[in-house]
Prior knowledge:
The structure holds 2 protein chains of 2 kinds.
Chain A: H1 15-21, H2 27-59, H3 73-100, H4 103-135, H5 143-162, H6 168-182, H7 185-195, H8 215-262
Helix pairs in contact in A: 2-8, 3-4, 3-5, 3-6, 3-8, 4-5, 4-8, 5-6, 5-7
Chain B: H1 4-39, H2 41-50
Helix pairs in contact in B: 1-2
Amino acid sequence: MPAPGVTVDATASLAPPRRNLHRFANPGRFLRLAGKVQPWLTAGGLIVTAIGIVWGLFFSPADWQQGDAVRIMYVHVPAAWLASAGYASIAACSVASLVWRHPLADLAAQEIGPVGAGFTAVCLATGSLWGKPMWGAWWVWDARLTSVLVLFFLYLGHIALLRAFDNPERGYRAGAILALVGAVDLPIIKFSVDWWHTLHQGNTFTLTGAPHMYISMIWPLLFTTFGFTLGFAAIITARLRAAVMERRIRALLMARVEERAAA
Amino acid sequence: MTFLPYVAASYAIGIVVPGGFALAAWRRLLNTTRRLAAIDPRQARRQEAARPEGRP
């Protein structure tokens, strides 16, 4: 209970998380931290991915039914994971933008979009290359495939919407709303193989049961998945650093123009 | 190796697309750093301080 006459800040309890969240809103601080982290992400991504790819291509066993086509999994699964994780990151950035107005959240969502769309395209293309020899078709309107295709269109819609307005702030806001609405596709992708028993195989990994895969295949898969994730993070960090610097360049140029106009 | 063309095409796509994004991001970062250093005196000073002695 405060003493009489002492003013109490009603928002004081909100202050610590808000400060933490906005700690990296300072562009200089963000650039310094990102500059230190990025070489580690890049090197880690390259090394771990290379180990996983060589392991998956040459040392992991072929499947007794699928033969060597199963090796496509070591590229397809990491790409599928990053397609969903990338969109989930955009949705998280959208929450940070709409609720807390975090200045870097909009830029992060903008920079994740094209890379996430690229990884979704890789997922769809490698899935198609896996489907042709196994199912006899490049494409089927299976629930999992269709929901991932919808995710790809959501990415494209998000990218287009951000660039559709003269005022970037309005584009960011519209993009954030689209990202949050589109996030409903993520659980549909995850559970599509349980809800609809169509052509795509069921989940290999579950929270409760043992994985439906030999350990000799799980290890290279974990390596490529972790390596791709590090690489994805490195690409996003580089793009975000460039975007922050581009914003600073624009601000400096505008300031110069205004100075000249005033003089 | 069975199904070699499909496996090779998958790995090619899985390497070329992320590699392209990485290369584009690296070039963009390099260009932006140069442009910022050219117009921002603080950035130029920071780069000057970070450069090892004796190097131009």
